[in-house]
Amino acid sequence: MIALVNAMHITASVFINDDESGLHHDYDVWLEKLAPHEPVSQYRHNVGEDNADAHMKRQIMGREVVVAITDGRLDFGTWERIFYGEFDGRRKKRVLVKIIGE
Amino acid sequence: MIALVNAMHITASVFINDDESGLHHDYDVWLEKLAPHEPVSQYRHNVGEDNADAHMKRQIMGREVVVAITDGRLDFGTWERIFYGEFDGRRKKRVLVKIIGE
Amino acid sequence: MIALVNAMHITASVFINDDESGLHHDYDVWLEKLAPHEPVSQYRHNVGEDNADAHMKRQIMGREVVVAITDGRLDFGTWERIFYGEFDGRRKKRVLVKIIGE
């Protein structure tokens, strides 16, 4: 069996990494450097909403993960954990989880 | 059921994001900033063809997407659409689509 | 059938690209530019081990690939090959391979 877990929003990510708050802070700072929110005028997509940078950040972090399930459990390495990364922050958000195979 | 959709070329991407031309322009500009084509001499891979930057751009945007199928339809969030991103531009291109599960 | 191939370590990647040593050198240089190791003090995660940059590099290159299997073989484009990318370098490493479907 495998599990597909994906964001249903194009300014958000589902990714696998370490459950460590310092690292998550580092991701925020790093993503802001690679895809800065300001100046909002640098992006053509910024009409109506100023979230073009969130669409960039999500591409770096990824939309989805696919994880093996073995003996009824997510078959993870020691430090692997699934996270939902939100780069825009508006609206209610949904995650899709689908399990297939035998 | 899930659908796997992937590029079969290593300088191209299949990705999911918004169907909005301003955003696609923003991606072009942004990717060129993160992985510039020029100067071509900065990449060792640029022998024969000068497309090393396309191999970088493709890693940021991703090779493939895996999408849940529910009731016979791609189970998408409101704005999710699948795109083929071409960063080199030579040759005919192919996409692989595979559907598995019940 | 599809094959899932993923790193089980959060500072490593499984990715698909060209089997060309110049390109792999280019990836090293490029990733170091996007997520520099030094100065290690720039990352909060760098307590105990100084590998925060490896967690960034892995997000760009990706954790996993999902590949179609057709007639018993990986259904690859001409130049597609699977690689394990190691960005930290400590400890023994494991890769998970899971094949599902008919």
Describe the SSE topology.
Three copies of one chain form a homotrimer.
Chain A (H helix, E strand, L loop, with lengths): L1 E6 L4 E6 L3 H14 L17 H10 L2 E7 L2 E2 L6 E6 L8 E6 L2
Précis, in short:
Chain A is an alpha+beta fold. Helix content of chain A is 24%, strand content 32%.
Model description:
Three copies of one chain form a homotrimer. Chain A is of the alpha+beta class and 102 residues long. Chain A has a single domain (2-100), classed as YjbQ-like (Jelly Rolls). In chain A, a hairpin with a 2-residue loop joins strand 3 (64-70) and strand 4. The mean pLDDT of chain A is 96. Chain A is built from two helices and six strands, in the order ββααββββ. The interface between A and B is medium-sized, with 28 and 30 residues.
Characteristic key phrases:
102 residues, two-stranded antiparallel sheet, alpha+beta
Largest interface: A-B, 28 and 30 residues
Main sheet of chain A, how many strands, which sense, barrel?
A: 4 strands, antiparallel
Task: Name the CATH architecture of chain A.
Answer: Sandwich
Give the amount of beta strand of chain A, in percent: 25-35%
As an assembly, this protein is homotrimer
Number of strands of chain A: 6
Q: Which structural class matches the secondary elements of chain A?
A: alpha+beta
Number of domains of chain A: 1
Question: Helix fraction of chain A?
Answer: 10-25%
What is the N-to-C succession of helices and strands of chain A? Answer: EEHHEEEE
Cα Rg of chain A: 15 Å
- Spatial gap, N to C terminus of chain A: 5 Å
Instruction: Look up the CATH topology of chain A.
Output: Jelly Rolls
**Unreliable segments of 5+ consecutive residues of chain A:** none
Mean pLDDT of chain A: 96
The CATH superfamily of chain A is identified as YjbQ-like
CATH top level of chain A is: Mainly Beta
What is the general shape of chain A?
Answer: elongated
> What is the topology, as strand order, of the major beta sheet of chain A?
4-3-1-6
So how many helices of chain A? 2
